[in-house]
Amino acid sequence: MTAQTVPHHIAIVMDGNGRWANKRFLPRIAGHKKGVNSLKRCAKTCDARGVRVLTVFAFSSENWQRPTDEVSGIMDLFAFALAREVPQLKADGVQLRFIGERQGLSDKVLRGIEQSEAATASNQRLVLNVCFNYGGRWDIVQAAAKLSAQGVPVTEASLSQAMALAHVPDPDLVIRTGGELRISNFLLWQSAYSEFVFTDTLWPDFDEAALDSAISAFATRERRFGKTSDQVKPGVLPSSAH
């Protein structure tokens, strides 16, 4: 794959952990544990393919409505995974960033987030944004509120700079696993011109081949950003000049 066909920034809705577990008559948290391994594998593959930013939807602001035992298990798994995985991520040059509302998270989770970000802050090989307690509408509202508090006029440019992902370019490719055909309040602002790939593969089964398939699909897309095909093809004269 060439640099032109590999997305700089991939975002993923990691869906299907619970269904993966249900199909195997396992508790739903077993699917979430398996999903952590898929994320590790995906991050390594992204790095190997030349992707420089990976953003994943780990826990939405709406997921609090799930059964209490599942939410509690996810929080415990999140804190445990941070403690276990961050040393290796640091060694691999991955910069961890956590995106979302931190109010309401436990002290244990907050400590894990802060320590992980501090430990990997200088890494530059791959930026891994973990959207946790995140919602796209929340992101837009917090950005507008920030600008209002600063007395800054709300424009497209100023709002973009106030968004939670202002430190990276907008995603080129958004992938959703698990067979659902919606974005579920994920990166509503940032995905305005993203390419989308939906796959029936459940997240714990999403492997290198599945990621390569999504990247290959991306490579076939013509990204016009409002222009015509002629305008975006180098060396091709506008139609009116033919």
What is the CATH topology assignment?
A: Undecaprenyl pyrophosphate synthetase
> Could you tell me the number of beta strands?
6
CATH superfamily, please? Decaprenyl diphosphate synthase-like
Provide the CATH architecture: 3-Layer(aba) Sandwich
What is the helix/strand order? Answer: EHHEHEHEHHEEHH
The oligomeric state of the chains shown is single chain
Separate helix tally: 8
Q: Strand order of the main beta sheet, please?
A: 3-4-2-1-5-6
Top-tier CATH class: Alpha Beta
Q: What percent strand?
A: 5-15%
Indicate the structural class: alpha/beta
Tell me the span between the first and last alpha carbons: 32 Å
Please give the domain count. 1
Helix percent band? 40-55%
Overall outline: globular
Q: Specify Rg, calculated over alpha carbons.
A: 19 Å
Largest sheet: 6 strands, parallel
Overall average residue pLDDT: 92
